[in-house]
Write a structure and sequence with these properties.
By secondary structure, the chain is mostly helical. It contains twelve helices and no strands.
Amino acid sequence: MRIVCVVAVLAAANLVNNWLVRGPVAYVLTCAAATAVLLLIARWDGLTRADLGIDAAGVRRGLRWAPVLAGAVLVVFLLLLAFPAGREAFRDARASDLSVGQLLWSVLVRVPIGTVLLEETAFRGVLWAMIRRRGGTAWATAGSSLLFGLWHLLPSRGLNRANPAMGTAFGSGSAGVAATVTVAVVAMVVAGAVLCELRRRSGSLLAPAALHWAINGFGYALAWAVTRGWAPA
């Protein structure tokens, strides 16, 4: 019953963010509100801060992991920019039209307080802990990762239009959209499993959150730079 409540909250937040709200502030507020509700459900289920990976010991472990993970992501991204195909992958309409202020908002507010806070609390925090208590670690990772993939079904509908590399690979018609969405969902299931394993190994929710922010935050910043010709050629 309580897992169903978590899924219902996530489904509602997903629909609101992708169909109803407009504007970056509304997105962040929706994510923050959904996070608060999920934490209340976790408390109702009897989960502790340690179960969620946000106890004092977990935070300390996460702080040790965070700079290493963020640095590794940045190095990989910069290496990708050294190749033409890598630079092309960073060309994304979602970042190209941002002003400096909008870019800073996306990297420092929208991504960490909106996207990362909700998704990590939901999928590597509350859901993972609830399923793990009932069925073990393997089921927790499988279940939360599958739901994480499905969570990206609606947001991925426009990927082939926003990203030229995706459009070239899959086309822009209905078949291309279907292929892009399928690939995106599968990729997010795999990414979810990696983040769950990082959550397990680190004993901290902060570790997958740091990796998640680094991928999205550095991704936005470098995509913005590429569209302005600032990336290395």
